[in-house]
Amino acid sequence: MAVNKPNEWSELREWLAARIVYADLTDFAEADRGRLARALTAVMSALGDGPGGDRGDRGDSGDGGDSGAAVEVVRGELGRGGEARADDVLRTHLAIALAARTADVRGIGPDGALVVANARQWAECRELVEEIIALSPHPELIAFATGLRGRLVEARRWRWVEPDVWTAAVVGLAVLVLPFVGAAIGSAVVTVAGVAVGGALVFGFVMAHRRRGWAVDPGR
C-alpha cells in the first residue's frame, strides 16, 4: 500500500534528519574526513535525501529502502577507528541509521502509523533498539529507542480474544458434566478422567483465545 499522506515515517524521517551532525570536515584529519563524508552520504540516503529513501514508494511491506545499507556503511566506518571526535559523530549517525531501519522493518497501517505485525518484525526491531541504546548517542536518540522499546513490550503481551458464545458454552458444559457423570455412576476412574479432560479443554480454550498484541491491535 502506497502511503501518500503525512504518516509516522515522514515525521520520523524529518525528526532524524534534524539530528544529523554536519561537522566541519576541515577540522579533521584526511582519513577521518573520508569516514565522516561516506557515513553522512549513507545516512542522508536512508532518510530520503538521496536515491531510494522515499518510503511512500515502497508500500507497507516492511522491507527495502537504504537504511540497511546505511547501517552497514556507518558501522564499517566506525569500526575503522580514528579520532575520538570523529567516532562520536559516527556513533550519532549510526544511531540515526538504526532508527531509520526500525521504520523500514515495520509496516505502515491504514492510518499511516508504523506497526509491528509479526514476530520477525518484532525481533529485528528489538535488536535495533538495543544497539541504539548501547551506542549511547545523543539523549534524544536514546529517548526514542527507549520509547520504541516500550511499544515493543506492549506489542508482545498476550491479550485475550473474546470467544463466541457457543464455544464457551460447550467447553463450560463439558467441564461440569464429565466429572458429574463419573460421580453419578460411582466410578473414580471416570471422575478423574473427566477432571483431566475438563482441564485439557480449559487449557486448549485459553490457548486458542489469546493473541500477541501485534495480532490484536496492529496499531501498536
From TrEMBL:
Residues 48-69 are annotated as: Disordered. The chain crosses the membrane at residues 165-182, 188-208. It comes from the Bacteria. Keywords: Membrane, Transmembrane, Transmembrane helix. Residues 52-61 have a biased composition (Basic and acidic residues). This is Uncharacterized protein. It comes from Saccharothrix carnea.
